Amino acid sequence: MVTSIRNGMPMLDTDGKPMHAHGAGIMEDNGYYYMFGEVRDGDKRVACYRSKDLMNWEFRNVVLRITSEKKPHYMRTDLDLVYHGKGVNIERPKVLYCEKTKQYVMWMHYENGVDYNAARCAIATCDTVDGDYVYRGSFNPVGNDARDCTLYKDKDGTAYFFASGRDNADMMVYRLSDDYMSVDEQVKALWAGQYREAPAVFEKNGKYYMLSSMCTGWNPNQGGSASSFGIEDRWSSISNFGDSVTFNSQPTAVVKFGEHYIYVADRWDPVDYNNSGYIFLPITIEDGACHIEWADEISFDVKTKTYSVFSIESEDYRIMANEFTAYLSSDGADVFTRPLSYKDESLIWNFWEKGNCYNIVHKATGKGLASDGTMRDISDKRSMLWTIEKCEDRVRIVNVESGKVFAVRGRRVMLASPDDKFGYCRIVRKY
Ligand code: DGJ
Known about the structure:
By secondary structure, the protein is an all-beta fold. 0% of the residues lie in helices and 50% in strands. The chain is built from no helices and 38 strands.
């Protein structure tokens, strides 16, 4: 039994085995929370775990496999789960129970396992919540492409499918048929051209909320939240949710715990999928916008249906060099960019305050950033001191001696003139 979750880290199930349920959906059924999520191991594609307390997850079944039973559905669906000899990719599985048919119905994002060009949804069904689901095929909803997705069941039992469409440019909303097995009507195309993905939907006190992210592959970015008084009504514009990297997370679900709404997210490891972690953070709502604060740890009390959070103040940061896809690294002599990896300690920097400026210190080597863009021994020389100028959610790092700004073009680091458009970066606390 564990008594807390260490946010951002991989989790172990109650058998002590690594939990693989990424891009998860969570539903409540017969007194348990059931988590359905991606697993990429052999012929496994969707795993199911259950928990009473959101912390201790019991493995129940691999509910969908490449080798699962297949049964064609009346729509034109493609039953292939192997493409060019390789198992397909199944992402973001979500399950609803349909009272009308007494079936558990799973919707998911289907890709061919080679690239992301299929852009389809797929469905599977089962008589029991954690049984062996029957694959019913993949298809394009009303002919649209569909990638990141989620399901939502409204209070009257109407089910909706949300999926990024038009090559991720729009967030499409589909009302499902009353057996949850097909699209009844596309009711929305939200935030056209804003490229939102990773939707997670919940309702509180008669208002609906959708969390989502921008589209930057496996890299974290600025999350967003929006609200509406009805799934098919007008939705608000998107307001920022979390910090510029959503505390190194991407939304996947929101689960109710007592009177609290808990943000469930993935911390994808862009270089090691199976090292991806999980995040559970309490949501607060102010003026129609959702907010989260970082917490290193969270624990849930099933008796009182309350949670408690705990954080260790960290002085460690990563410096994101350009649009969400490259981070500053060093070998103690030079500075360059590398992809995000939570295991890569060469991405960690400290800022030693010296009055109203800083030494920028590479934690792993103890060297400081110098005015020529190389790394040198730390000193109070003006060439080793920098000011940090805030520019909305980005900063400009300016050398005190030269007045040059720290700029990164691709993998190249340089000191540029103050108006250089590459002279911005994001300083992100290491969570
Ligand atoms: C971001 C999505 O949210 C993930 O589910 C996955 O499809 C990655 N993109 C692939 O780059």
